[in-house]
Design a protein that fits this description.
lactoylglutathione lyase activity; methylmalonyl-CoA epimerase activity; single chain; metal ion binding; 2,3-Dihydroxybiphenyl 1,2-Dioxygenase, domain 1; Glyas_Fos-R_dOase_dom
Length: 131
């Protein structure tokens, strides 16, 4: 569809707004609004234009990411990939923040690594080789 121009936002269901807000602020996201609406939702945005809507109704007993941490391979979005200009700098920053890198991969055309947020949502930091 030619009318699509970009991703407007990413929706993440979370258990604790304060924990999510603190985590994503470490990655450079800024708090915009919330909780608002019937769900309710809180909004953070990165200076790059990436917007996250936190849906604040996750089951507090949930301890696994059902798309990534159980044997059944359910359908759904498994992660978000954030493109970076310098993978080594991003890796150094993540380690300095005390955030665990769960996997690192290098191909001819890209390097990337993965982390988890407080609700076990997967975040990829991705640098194509041409950058």
């Amino acid at each position: 569809m030619k009318e699509i121009t970009r991703i407007n936002h990413i929706g993440l269901r979370v258990k604790n707004l304060n924990a999510s807000r603190q985590f994503y602020q470490q990655l450079g996201f800024e708090f915009i609004a919330g909780p608002i609406g019937p769900e309710p939702v809180a909004i953070m945005e990165h200076p790059s234009g990436i917007n996250i809507n936190f849906i604040l109704n996750a089951d507090s007993d949930c301890t696994e990411n059902v798309l990534m941490d159980i044997a059944a391979k359910n359908t759904g979005y498994t992660h978000v990939a954030l493109e970076v200009t310098n993978i080594e700098s991003a890796r150094k920053t993540i380690k300095a923040l005390g955030i665990t890198i769960t996997e690192e991969v290098e191909f001819e055309d890209a390097q990337f690594f993965f982390i988890r947020d407080p609700d076990k949502n997967v975040i990829e930091f991705h640098q194509p080789s041409n950058r």
